[in-house]
Specification:
Number of domains: 3
Largest sheet: 9 strands, antiparallel
Oligomer: single chain
Distance between the termini: 45 Å
Order of helices and strands: EHEHEHHEEEHEHHEHEEEEEEEEEE
Number of strands: 18
Radius of gyration: 22 Å
């Protein structure tokens, strides 16, 4: 059995490769280059040439063959173009989720199979289990054992076919344990810092990065005062799954911005507006009028919602054998962003979509981000992009 490890030059994938080699598997490494353009990237972050050199050194140290593949065309089409289209529509995408489902376990997997690989292994902090249900093998994604590093959320769009080819060798370890293994094995990546920012692009100045395609357009920043919120809420009378719709006349213009597409709900940096005792947060954006609505304080009621919706066509079941039918209702644990603690939630399946009703109001529900649902034992069962 041949296993190809997606070797990034980081410590996690390095230890994944090392452990598989120690376990006696036929292991090879492949580094994927997915991005060339440095527009908007911050110097020193995720420079692919350096990453490739470290990855080669790790492969040499472990004693496994090293391969290189350029998937930048696929990455631009499948991930970056998606990012631009989502931001242009006033939503906030999660490129890392798409990178896994469209690149690492799709385009990259094809290259793995061309090399004769049976499995692709990555350094994700999550676990995979195989069970038998009705005479058929079913693959489960389980949260990693390190609660501070669990990365199952980033795999929330994988399919059973993709999981059948996937291995996650470090899901049972904590980050400190991974570091210690790397040090003991004297791997060149042992002390390397974790990468940050957009998958394979790195840490970016988001407005500069997006301005490659999305042009700036001045608009107003309108403050919604908390004493006026209840009146606006009663006027709009939204259901539990719909955000409040604000109008420019609902508040006071307190500044300007360079374009709604560069900002996201819950954001508190980047507006450069003073004169407030507490921090101001973005509570809503309106792409049609190019207006940003803000509120003062992290407890502003406009930051919180009880529910959300995922369109029926975008509901993705990792476990299709557990798929909910219209009219069904279940209790699951849900997260709406990476590293958010799991939240108790009731899921209701209707003809037009999946409706989520949380036990406690959720802060910063952001259209375009993925809502992922889990069973009590930590198995991730499905996901879908938040509609609005």
């Amino acid at each position: 059995m041949k296993i190809i490890v997606g070797l990034s030059g980081g410590v996690d994938s390095s230890v994944a490769a090392y452990l598989l080699k120690q376990q006696g598997y036929d292991v090879e490494a492949m580094y994927m280059q997915n991005w060339h353009d440095v527009t908007g990237t911050l110097h020193g972050e995720c420079e692919w040439e350096e990453e490739k050199v470290v990855a080669e050194m790790v492969a040499k140290k472990i004693g496994i063959p090293f391969h290189f593949v350029d998937l930048s065309d696929d990455y631009r089409k499948q991930v970056v173009d998606y990012m631009f289209s989502e931001y242009a529509a006033g939503r906030t995408p999660n490129p890392d989720v798409l990178c896994n489902s469209k690149i690492k376990f799709a385009s990259f997997l094809e290259k793995v199979e061309e090399l004769g690989g049976d499995f692709v292994a990555t350094g994700h902090y999550c676990k995979k289990e195989t069970i038998n249900a009705g005479g058929k093998e079913i693959y489960r994604i389980i949260a990693g054992d390190d609660p501070n590093k669990d990365q199952s959320y980033f795999l929330c769009q994988l399919s059973q076919q993709q999981l059948s080819k996937a291995l996650f060798p470090i899901g049972h370890l904590t980050k400190p344990q991974v570091r210690e293994i790397a040090r003991e094995a004297r791997l060149p990546s042992a002390e390397k810092k974790d990468s940050q920012g957009i998958c394979f692009v790195g840490k970016v100045d988001l407005p500069v990065f997006l301005q490659q395609v999305l042009k700036p357009k001045d608009g107003n920043v309108v403050e919604i005062f908390r004493e006026d919120y209840e009146k606006i809420f009663k006027r709009e009378n939204p259901d539990e799954f719909t955000p409040v719709r604000y109008k420019p006349e609902d508040g006071k213009i307190i500044g300007k911005h360079i374009g709604v597409q560069y900002y996201t709900i819950g954001q508190r940096h980047g507006l450069n507006i003073g004169g407030h005792q507490g921090s101001i947060f973005i509570i809503a954006t309106d792409i049609a009028t190019n207006t940003i609505y803000v509120g003062e304080g992290k407890d502003h009621p406009g930051l919180y919602r009880k529910g959300l919706k995922v369109n029926a066509s975008e509901v993705h079941w990792i476990r299709p054998d557990l798929k909910m039918e219209a009219g069904e209702e279940r209790r699951y644990l849900v997260r709406i962003r990476y590293r958010q603690p799991l939240q108790k939630c009731t899921l209701k399946m209707k003809e037009d979509g999946m409706y989520f009703l949380f036990d406690e109001p959720q802060r910063g529900v952001t259209p375009g981000q993925f809502a992922a649902w889990y069973a009590e034992d930590g198995e991730m069962l499905g996901s879908g992009p938040i509609k609005e």
